[in-house]
Amino acid sequence: MTTGTVVVQEVIPSVLLLTAWLMPSLTGPTLPFGVRTPPARAHAPVIAEQRRAYRWLVGGVGGVLVAAGLALAFADPRTPLAGFTSIGVLVVSGIGYLRARRAILAVKQREDWYAGLRQAVVADTSLRTRPERFPWLWAVPSLVVLAVTAVAAVVRYPSMPDQLPMHYGDSGTVDRYAAKSVGSAFSPVFVQLAVTTLLLVVIWYAFRSRAELDPARPAASASQHRRYIVRMSAALLVLTACVDVTVLCAGWQIWDGDRSLAVLPVLAPAGAGMVAVVAVAIRTGRNGSRLPVPEGEDGTEPARTDAVHRDDDRYWRFGGVVYVNRQDPAIFVGKRFGIGWSLNFGNPRALLPIGVFLGFLLVMQLIGH
Amino acid sequence: MILSIDLSSDVPIYQQIRDRVVEAIAAGDLAEGSALPSTRQLAGDLGINFHTVNKAYDLLRQEGLLRLNRKSGAVVQRDPGSGPPPPGFTEEWSSRLRTLLAEAVAQGMDGTAVLEACGRVVGSFGTGADMAPGTGPGAGHGVGPDVKSGMGRGSQGEPA
């Protein structure tokens, strides 16, 4: 592996670490570590305390892990450390999250933060009757990459070697070949088709997912949601195109019959796409909470400061990361701690996306063999 | 329209949805022909059972305010400008109004204050045209919530 490869491999844990470190600031003031809190308690001492403890833990231990990984990778580039560093960063931030969450939940329960508060849910019907238009234009790049790959496969087919590499081992060298055929030569195109379809379906569902509006300022948060959903969808469509480029780069090397895979051009596009999504998520904030509200839209809000968002903690199980609500017809709901959406596992219709995903994995396996 | 449901309230959710839609029609936020989300969409947006929304929409349909359609979803069927109320409505409504006004009188509000409150509420709806959005925060069956432009248009508005 080259120095460039080492750097690229260390980019992933670094981005993970940065995202994990920033996460408490991304999720908004009323959802510290996935605990629903009334706005009046946003400045409770325990929350500030736990944020600080989390940042120290993740920044300290995670930073040491990434630095150690980088140093070791430079010292001996043969050790495949990137995966371990990423897992280490994830574990550390997971532990920090659970500790902070438990501490805040304990105080919330002891002091009964929701006593005497009116809990409300708010919907803006115009988000359904006059919905934002899906940013289809941003899907064009991925379709172009797909078309380019298909054309390249057709053009290069005659000059491809008789044996095409089908699988690369951990060290980046070929460990399985397949005879040249339409199935093996076009496998990058099939993978792109599967990935693009899957991501388009998921993005389309997420685009139509519910807007979580602030009962104290529903109109302003609805307007923020409109821009949030368009930007996040556009960012995810760009990521889709980047993943397709990654597959094209891998495909190109397969068509050359390369014995070892150059990791840099394969990982770089997908990595850049991830960085773009994280950057957009940081800029917009959860549900667009960081987007400015246009003049006038905030001023006409009816004063409803006595109503607070419902305490929905009980539907978020397993450390507050899995949403299970049988009464809720929603399929995708916004994550509480993290970027993007998760499924409502209480809704049988949520099995459809899971089925699509499992089907996708199965198809990938079949293509691989 | 902005639909706010108070989950701590004793008023059932389907009743709250029905009440807010009626108020939005009165205030001009929803006009004849305005679309409302499908039951499943609205239930998803509120995170509640879709039978609850179904019940509210069915009430509104029975009152002749909503037209339910398998294809186009829910459409508002009438507004203040759609002509006189259907036959029998006034009598039925008057009996409910009687109870509501009796509550105020029994609690010691004097007649003028009750009429003033009525005037403010009717005034806050406007006469079908432009009015500030988001009237009538859901304090039960809103008699006299704090409407800022109180005395604006005739304090003794049309009494019943």
UniProtKB/TrEMBL annotation, chain A:
Keyword flag NADP: no
* Span of domain DUF5808: 326-350
Q: Which UniProt keywords apply?
A: Membrane, Transmembrane, Transmembrane helix
Q: Which InterPro entries match?
A: DUF1648, DUF5808
Per the database record, which ranges form the DUF1648 domain?
Answer: 145-190
Q: Which Pfam families match?
A: DUF1648, DUF5808
- Say yes or no: keyword Membrane present: yes
TM spans (from-to): 12-35, 56-75, 81-100, 136-157, 185-207, 228-255, 261-282, 350-368
PANTHER family listed in its UniProt record: IMMUNITY PROTEIN SDPI, MEMBRANE PROTEIN
Q: What is this protein called?
A: DUF5808 domain-containing protein
UniProtKB/TrEMBL annotation, chain B:
Where is the stretch described as Disordered?
A: 132-160
What InterPro entries does the record tag this protein with? Answer: Tscrpt_reg_HTH_GntR, WH-like_DNA-bd_sf, WH_DNA-bd_sf
Query: Residue ranges under compositional bias (Gly residues)?
Result: 151-160
* UniProt keyword Lipid biosynthesis present: no
- Tell me which UniProt keywords the record has, alphabetically: DNA-binding, Transcription, Transcription regulation
Keyword DNA-binding, does the record have it? yes
Domain named HTH gntR-type is located at: 11-79
Q: What is this protein called?
A: HTH gntR-type domain-containing protein
